[in-house]
Design goal:
The chain is of the alpha/beta class. The protein is built from 21 helices and 29 strands. The longest helix is centred in the first third of the chain and has 22 residues. The relative contact order is 0.10.
Length: about 675
């Protein structure tokens, strides 16, 4: 068994595990490679040096007549560098003329960014960095007031945004007093059509100009700022490693977003360490995870070390497959909910199909899995030619690596992608507070069920959490709260020194996430401590862990597990897997034509499914306290409810779910009852 981490000798202290490092970088550093790159500005210059004429930033052609998208159009790295110089100079003039008293962090000024992913977002960010400014991503991921909160909290004076965001900002000017300048990514003469321009015309754009004057706001478009910079160029003022590069707001799964200040040193440390782990070159990357958060930018920075083409998704999640077909990426960076959707579509057409197609696919799948396990070879001459090359073509046919973050990805999904797409799948771990960097799975590791090993230059250790039942002395695998010591750790939460102190244990970031160290040195994510609840038996239950386990039952698509200290069982809002559930439930209900909604409300169906899940829980080793006491069957998938149950990163918002399903949860707890029940009852 090859150890993938290095255990630092004599580093254990009471209540804490030993310190673990990447086994290839035992001294805890990166080594000397790329040591000359210390800021995002220097990384941009590095990419310009290694790929000056290469395609760099791409967007799809758009036909306003029928709303269709065509091939990608590209800016070369040289084109982008010229744009950054001109727009960066223009920004210098904008701040000096229209926002001379702009506040910020220390002597730096923030530039608000408010739009879906597009190449203008990245160009504006690199332009801000060129003059030692930092970007602040603005999003609507939590509620209608999120954008206002961010503008006010970060004291933003200048915002670069898409045209569709302008009317909303103007409507709420009375509660965002710091805002002085709005720079529109779209031409205000409407001469360059794109999807967000569809709702605007020359007259409505002119009305925005007029309203800006009435509100005392300077409204410009990016072309006007470019012309200002070209007319009077300014000298670049590059940042230092300790300067702030960007401020990202946490995803808001538990309430108000926190503003996380990330330095150039931190982001470069993280991206460099990830590159040293993966060493991808000449990468084609689809930018689809919201740029307001740090994960997609962290990926782009990582790929810039070896050269990258970044194609931006068109903004319609229903057309992601079309974007992939047009771009033909070599790497796909996503999150489990997105990857699960791709898996469900592909698996139903192959290993889940009926007849000859299904039988052949399952035979091929078993053969490739066996070959991969024994040889580490992702390809198979026969089955790829007969079947899997056609499957891979659905994602462009060039995919070499899938990188998953945010939460656990089902091992079956990982195995399917490796076989069906002949590409590697690695999982990683990071937080906003680490600039998305933390751990990453090695490319030569074809196992699943873990989040890899520490990035080069990162130290990790565990802290015992006895109240939750996790100890660093647990055998055979130490368990506890993951602690990270790294230069990638954030500088502070803006304006919240107490929360900053609470998040640190000396020089270690306390992540709030429980993991275990496996015998191979890999790290398995267990659950988030904030998703634990102690029921009245005294047992501490991880709702997230139970959701992962129960969702693997064939009748279950997804579920939300809730627990309360006054009750002796956990309960669940459960979304069934319609394809499996409907025929089973019709048999149980003796109603061969009953629709899904009727079956979900059928008392006999609910009773029998609850019993099936009780039997299932025992078969997978769950305790009595982890059995579902009662369930409510929700016919509509959570994603389709359109009631704010997910963040922009598609993380499930438990507090929002508890509020939305409050009536159903109360009925379930009434069924369960609040009597104390011991494990011997």
């Amino acid at each position: 068994m090859t150890m993938q981490t290095f255990k630092v000798p004599s580093s254990e202290v009471p209540g804490y595990s030993a310190i673990y490092r990447n086994s290839l970088f035992k001294d805890g550093t990166h080594g000397g490679e790329f040591a000359h790159i210390t800021t995002a500005y220097e990384l941009f210059q590095h990419h310009l040096a290694i790929a000056p004429k290469s395609e760099f930033l791409g967007t799809r052609q758009f036909n306003p007549a029928d709303g269709s998208f065509g091939a990608y159009e590209w800016l070369t790295t040289t084109d982008a560098a010229e744009y950054v110089e001109d727009f960066g100079s223009g920004l210098d003039h904008v701040f000096a003329k229209y926002a001379p008293d702009a506040k910020g962090y220390g002597t730096q000024q923030p530039l608000g960014m408010y739009a879906n992913n597009r190449y203008e977002w990245s160009l504006a960010e690199f332009s801000a960095i060129r003059s030692r400014r930092y970007t602040v991503g603005i999003c609507d991921s939590v509620n209608v007031g999120s954008a206002d909160y961010i503008i006010n909290h970060a004291e933003i004076s200048v915002v670069v945004c898409s045209i569709d965001k302008i009317p909303r900002m103007f409507d709420r000017m009375s509660i965002t007093p710091s805002l002085r300048v709005v720079i529109c990514m779209d031409r205000l003469d409407c001469s360059r059509p794109n999807p967000v321009m569809q709702a605007f015309c020359a007259e409505s754009a002119a009305a925005l100009r007029k309203r800006a004057v009435e509100l005392g706001i300077t409204l410009l478009d990016m072309d006007e700022v470019l012309e200002m910079g070209r007319a009077t160029p300014t000298t670049a003022c590059p940042p230092t490693p300790s300067d702030i590069c960007t401020m990202c707001y946490t995803s808001g799964t538990t309430g108000v977003n926190k503003g996380v200040l990330l330095t150039h040193q931190g982001l470069i440390h993280g991206s460099r360490s990830c590159h040293l782990s993966l060493r991808l070159s000449d990468t084609t990357h689809l930018s689809l995870i919201p740029l307001a958060h740090c994960m997609d930018r962290y990926a782009t920075y990582t790929f810039m070390y070896g050269g990258v083409r970044v194609g931006y998704a068109n903004g319609d999640r229903a057309l992601i497959a079309d974007d992939i077909q047009a771009l033909r990426p070599t790497v796909l960076v996503g999150f489990p909910l997105l990857l699960n959707g791709i898996y469900e579509s592909m698996s139903k057409a192959t290993i889940g199909a009926k007849g000859v197609t299904g039988a052949l696919s399952r035979m091929a799948y078993r053969s490739k899995k066996k070959r991969l396990a024994s040889t580490g070879n992702l390809s198979h001459g026969l089955w790829d030619r007969v079947l899997f090359n056609k499957v891979a073509a659905k994602l462009g046919g060039r995919l070499k690596t899938i990188i998953s973050g945010a939460m656990n990805l089902n091992p079956e999904v990982i195995n399917f992608f490796r076989a069906a797409l002949s590409c590697n799948v690695v999982q990683g771990y990071g937080q906003t507070e680490t600039g998305a960097a933390g751990t990453i799975q090695r490319l030569d590791d074809f196992t699943s069920g873990h989040i890899g090993v520490p990035n080069p230059g990162n130290d990790i250790r565990l802290r015992s959490k006895p109240d939750f039942g996790y100890l660093v002395t647990d055998s055979p695998c130490p368990r506890g709260e993951l602690m990270i010591r790294s230069k990638s750790v954030f500088a502070e939460y803006l304006g919240e020194p107490e929360k900053t102190r609470e998040s640190m244990d000396g020089e270690w970031l306390a992540t709030g996430d429980v993991v275990q160290i496996n015998p191979t040195g890999t790290i398995t994510f267990v659950s988030r401590m904030k998703n634990h609840v102690k029921i009245n038996t005294g047992y501490c239950v991880s709702s997230e862990r139970l959701e992962n386990i129960y969702s693997q039952h064939p009748l279950v698509h997804s579920l939300y597990v809730d627990g309360h200290q006054d009750y002796n069982k956990v309960v669940a809002i459960l979304v069934p897997d319609a394809a499996e559930f409907v025929p089973w439930a019709r048999t149980v209900a003796s109603s061969p034509a009953a629709p899904l909604e009727e079956l979900c409300a059928n008392a006999k169906v609910v009773q029998d499914l609850t019993e099936l899940l009780r039997i299932y829980s025992a078969s997978v080793g769950l305790s009595i306290g982890e059995q579902l006491g009662a369930i409510y069957i929700e016919p509509t998938p959570f994603r389709e409810k359109n009631c704010g149950l997910y963040t922009a990163l598609l993380k499930f918002k438990r507090q929002a779910a508890a509020k939305y399903y409050a009536e159903q949860l109360q009925k379930l707890y009434t069924e369960v009852g609040g009597l104390f029940v011991t494990s011997n009852s």
